[in-house]
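Observation: inputs received (chain + iron/sulfur cluster).
Thought: call the complex predictor directly.
Action: predict_structure
Action Input:
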Amino acid sequence: MRKPKIDIDKCVACGNCEEICPEVFQVEDVSHVITDDFRGLEGCIEAAAENCPEDAITFEEEEEE
Ligand code: SF4
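Observation:
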């Protein structure tokens, strides 16, 4: 399953990701992923990643733990 991750060292809390995909991202001091269920949200996660000015969001395949 692909999971979004935020590099908090890159995030400048601009708010783009929350504006584009509020079901997944919430910005406080930095952006946070607020859900574990990304079904049906792949498009908006990809859009958020593309519109992050710092390229802080990745959305990659990850092994199940
Ligand atoms: S779009 Fe990128 S820089 Fe902006 S709040 Fe989200 S993760 Fe941080």
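Thought: report the result.
Final Answer: The mean pLDDT is 95. Residues 2-60 form a domain with the Alpha-Beta Plaits fold (CATH 3.30.70.20).
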